[in-house]
Amino acid sequence: MAEKREMTPEEEVAAKKSFEGMERAKSYNIIDLGYDDVAESLKKNDTIIVSMGSTEKHGAHCPLGTDSFTAMGVIEKAAVLCDTLYTPLLPVGYSPHHMGEVNQGTGTLTFSGDTYRAVVYDLAMSLIYHGFNKMVFVTHHGSNSKVIDDILRKIRYETGAFVGWYKTPTERTFSIVEDIMEGPRSETPGWHAGELETSTAWAYKPSSVAMARAHQDRTHAPRYMGDKFTKHDGSGFVTFMGAESMWVPMEHHEYSDSAIIGNPLRAAKEKGEKYFEVASEALAALVEEVKKMDVKVDLENRHFTSRA
Fold it and tell me: What is the pTM of this model?
């Protein structure tokens, strides 16, 4: 075995010369970058997109990562349009109601509300520590938005940073992509594993979708509530006497038998691609406005002393 020795200066020069032209590929995802790339980007842009995903039960034809794929399909394109870095995906969200029943094996992963808020706080404070003054968290999973108001306020009150929580368009924020979907409102095309989400999963990762398992399905009020209550979509509300006047902490399987809310048989890969185009333009336009905001964080508020 050859004896180990330190490289001579001449060998070091020769080695470095052999690597000339070997540069890192262009990326906006900080996981792909070196620390110096992030520092250089910060000199011109103190805004960052924070990628928030989910791993949860959808219809049998859709992958558990449907919401993550949808969010990243938007984020990746938007980042290029607005020349803004983004964080690697956090693939676990707040999904306790998607766990299914014990030993059912749905594969859903969830943080508790307390854990999720702590993760959001630590992510934000890490970024503020490095010099980011403005953060746009982006999620497709609606329930991630349920538990974060207090922690976003805490971040703002403690640091003065701008922190926004952006939900990619679907469900009740459907207007900018409505023309892409063919299904009528009665088919709830923007809901769970239906026309929209099946299309986006198909466009982002075609091999993850098993369309032979797809079928239409609708929601219903949990059967234990009796026949005076109804339910027409995947929100937390039930309808009584014609009004959605009560929110109920339901399990997803109590009101959706197959985890499909809508008609995935209307899905198409091309619809998902069009969705990513339109939704990324909307997110990029929003980020461009955030970039213009005059927000500064005082040095003493960046230290993140609780990080250990």
Answer: 0.95
